[in-house]
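User: Can you help me understand a structure? I only have the sequence.
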Amino acid sequence: MVATYTILGRQVGSHVLALATLGTTFAGAYLAMPSKTKEKETGPAINAGSKDEEKFIQDFLKNAGAGGEKAKA
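Assistant: Let's start by predicting it. Here is the structure, written out as tokens:
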């Protein structure tokens, strides 16, 4: 037999209370964790004298980053 408790005028089994407690605890912990969205990495501001220079620097950084990833693999 299962031990029962009277809650709000109803008979509730101890196993139901245990499962409700565990469910509430794990659901609360899951909801409290931060989301796993990856933020875009931003670097320092580029102080270029012209648009061409800024484009060159951005292309260079993009190519240098791609080359570094290839070297790791």
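Now, to help you interpret it: DSSP finds two helices and two strands in the chain. The helical segments are 14-32, 51-72. Let me know which part you'd like to focus on.
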